[in-house]
Design a protein that fits this description.
By secondary structure, the protein is of the alpha+beta class. The protein has helices at about 20-30, 65-75, 95-100, 155-160, 200-215, 230-235, and strands at about 1-5, 35-40, 45-50, 55-60, 85-90, 105-115, 130, 165-170, 170-180, 185-190, 220, 225, 240-250. The strands form two sheets. The protein has an eight-stranded mixed β-sheet, with helices on both faces. It starts with a strand and ends with a strand.
């Protein structure tokens, strides 16, 4: 497996991206950071597209050796990488069998959503202010699913990303931001402060993100693990509909 530097060499594989496509596209289109590994750097027939946040996709005519090499990277990410691999795949029993030969790798499921159209959201009457994410409030965002999850630094986020947050008395109640960005799609990441969950704050910022994405002429995207019921309900409340599931794999070493 070879690390690819000229991404144009896998242009012929792009049409094969069907699952969580915004993340591999964001790398191939030069919008977000990631790595691409191939079976042959001159004429690749198989590729692993690995986003900074950890989401990865396999494209092309991969064989058992390519899957074995992918599992090695999953077990032991190279220095300088974000440190995890969440491998997204279509429902493919043969691929699943090859992946699960690695004993420490576990299979999970994620919902597939389609955006059906924005829903009317009653304007909030909170004292909190809905603000665009800026240099002035960037450090107020705390938690796991915040811009640093999918952008290596704030400079890259402000260059190609955007988002909104609810601020009250100098603290963040909730934020929603562009976690994955391609020319056509924007995946929405949402974080609500632990003590503020269940109060509808996430819906306020998520709905504003949907509006902004549509204003920019792009398609809103949402994905989450099927165990994350709160995220699933939030997605459905702002215009997404569940249309299926697909597997994803990670090392639990």
């Amino acid at each position: 497996m070879i690390k690819l530097t000229d991404y144009r060499k896998i242009n012929h594989l792009v049409d094969q991206i069907r699952i969580e496509k915004v993340y591999p596209l964001s790398i191939l289109e030069g919008i977000q950071t990631g790595e691409i590994f191939v079976d042959d750097d001159e004429a690749p027939t198989a590729a692993l597209v690995w986003h900074y946040c950890g989401f990865a996709n396999i494209l092309g005519s991969y064989d058992e050796n390519f899957i074995e090499e992918t599992m090695k990277l999953m077990q032991d990410p190279p220095e300088g990488h974000s440190g995890r691999m969440a491998l997204q795949t279509e429902n493919d029993s043969h691929l699943e069998e090859m992946i699960l030969r690695t004993p420490t790798v576990a299979k999970h499921e994620r919902y597939i959503f389609e955006f059906e159209g924005k829903k009317d959201i009653i304007p909030h009457t909170l004292d909190a202010k809905l603000k665009e994410i800026s240099h002035d409030n960037y450090e107020l965002m705390k938690g796991r699913i915040i811009p640093s999850f999918s952008w290596p630094n704030r400079e890259e986020f402000f260059k190609n990303g955007f988002g909104y947050c609810l601020i009250e008395e100098g603290r963040m109640l909730a934020c929603a931001f562009a976690s994955g960005v391609s020319k056509e799609y924007v995946d929405i990441g949402v974080e609500t402060a632990e003590e503020c969950r269940g109060k509808g704050y996430g819906r306020i910022v998520a709905a504003e993100m949907v509006e902004e994405i549509l204003r920019r002429g792009k398609t809103p995207v949402w994905d989450c693990d099927i165990r994350n019921e709160a995220s699933m309900r939030l997605a459905c409340s702002v215009g997404f509909e569940i249309v299926g599931t697909h597997p994803w794999y990670k090392s639990e070493k």
